[in-house]
Write a structure and sequence with these properties.
With 127 residues, the chain is an alpha/beta fold. Helix content is 44%, strand content 13%. The chain has a four-stranded parallel sheet, covered by helices on one side. The longest helix is centred in the middle third of the chain and has 15 residues, at 45-59.
């Protein structure tokens, strides 16, 4: 799901509502919130929390809502995953940490810690 915003950087909830309805009416299987095309890199944690909450409310259990929460820091990813869980999302999309380039074993431990910390399904996203 793209994240429509006004010129001043405020999230356009009315446009998001229309997009959610369009996706549901069009037969979309699930919605990913705050993903790559959803301005993930530009949104604050507070904006992501608000966005997760708003989209979950708009979807109203009609299709799954997947929160994109992957960040280079394992602990920050866990914190954002817990926020997403509190907002009622159905699953998490977690990208491989960019910039820090962990080893294969490091990736294993990164995802293992997250999976043990948050009781939601995880989709691994390797950019």
């Amino acid at each position: 799901l793209v994240t429509p915003m006004f010129a001043d950087g405020v999230i356009d909830e009315e446009a998001i509502s229309r997009l959610v309805q369009w996706h549901i009416e069009s037969g979309t299987d699930a919605i990913v919130v705050a993903g790559s095309t959803g301005e993930s890199a530009l949104l604050t944690i507070a904006e992501k929390q608000k966005l997760f909450h708003f989209v979950v409310k708009e979807v109203a259990n009609r299709i799954p809502v997947i929160a994109s929460v992957g960040l280079p820091s394992t602990q920050v990813t866990i914190d954002l995953s817990r926020i997403a869980l509190e907002q009622g999302v159905d699953g998490l999309l977690i990208m491989t940490p960019a910039i820090v380039k962990p080893t294969q074993e490091g990736l294993y431990w990164h995802y293992k810690h997250i999976a043990e910390s948050v009781a939601l399904p995880i989709i691994l996203y390797n950019v």
